[in-house]
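Input.
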Amino acid sequence: MSQAGPITVLGVSGLPEIPAGADLAELIASAVPDLADGDILVITSKIVSKAEGRVISADRADAIAAETVRVVARRGPTTIAQTRHGLVLAAAGGDRSNTAPGTVVLLPQDPDSSANRLRKAIERRCGARVGVLITDTMGRPWRNGQTDMAIGAAGVLPLRDHRGQADTFGNLLEVTVAAVADEIAAAAELVKGKTDQVPVAIVRGLAELVTADD
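Output.
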């Protein structure tokens, strides 16, 4: 499917520090009153975790161990672990950045459910059909640097399946399935940044990926 129009990525700033129990949907809806049908909200997992009370006072090593179901690799102080979500990432997703000293932010318990609750609550407030992605930062094997990837999705088709289609030379595509949720997550990170206090982005121009399904 070709893209008919431009894709726009907008950062959402001005959100306050998120305490446990915060109405994250209300905060986001208030910050983005012009949400439109087909918009995709890309939300950093950290603020979802904070709102859900997933911040603990603990040593980081203990937090990693508690969230790990399998250690994949270790190099120096870095542990690559598989979480109960099935994710494989550094420190089992535990993070000490942008949180009070002595605390660790854990990943949401169920990122897909978190995304679905946020989507429904935001749609009720704004009257627009939107998609929601929850993202976290991950490294990639044999590549320097990290990028954001989707760990939870609701109302967004996360994959674009090209299998069975022909390329420009008539060759039949047999394995090509584009990870569009991860591509959107990475694009949104360009405007969110790591130190800019912009935890939410809006991606516009991909309405064909937004669905009423969870």
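Helices lie at 24-31, 45-51, 60-67, 111-126, 180-192.
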